[in-house]
Design goal:
alpha/beta; four-stranded mixed beta sheet; globular; 147 residues
């Protein structure tokens, strides 16, 4: 079981990959799951727009699309492919007044939370998602407090 990082139509390099993978394993455990094979694919806005159109029927830019291959009810192992549009993440960081890396970490954990079954399509589930993102981002900032 591993977290792997790739690029598609961009040159983004996520810093602290090993530490990030350990953090994501902690997040999954805290949510009651084991982290399986998770692939992060960092890509351009155009590439993710094409995927959004092709696979989801949405004609708009988004920061992340998660393809979930998890077995949450059987083995409790969460796995999947998480595509992240690095351009939209950078734009959102400027809009929210945070660094691009802070916003990237939010999107990275967002993808794992989706794999753990957390939705975000209704106002209630979206609020839950944001609370969990904030909680796990605090764990990143203060590793001693990780679960």
């Amino acid at each position: 079981m591993a977290v792997k990082y790739y690029t598609d139509d961009c040159t983004y390099l996520l810093p602290q990959k090993r530490l990030t993978a350990a953090w994501l394993r902690d997040v999954a455990l805290s949510e009651g799951y084991t982290l399986g094979d998770v692939n992060y694919i960092f890509c351009s806005a155009q590439r993710l727009l094409e995927m959004n159109r092709q696979y989801l029927g949405h004609d708009y830019f988004t920061d992340v699309i998660t393809f979930d291959y998890s077995d949450r009810k059987g083995t409790g192992i969460v796995s999947g492919d998480i595509f992240i549009d690095v351009e939209t993440v950078a734009d959102n960081a400027r809009q929210y007044g945070v660094t691009a890396l802070q916003e990237m970490r939010r999107v990275v954990v967002h993808g794992v939370l989706h794999l753990c079954g957390q939705g975000d399509k209704t106002p209630r589930t979206n609020a839950q998602m944001h609370r969990k993102e904030d909680k796990y981002l605090e764990f990143w900032e203060q590793p001693a407090e990780r679960p």
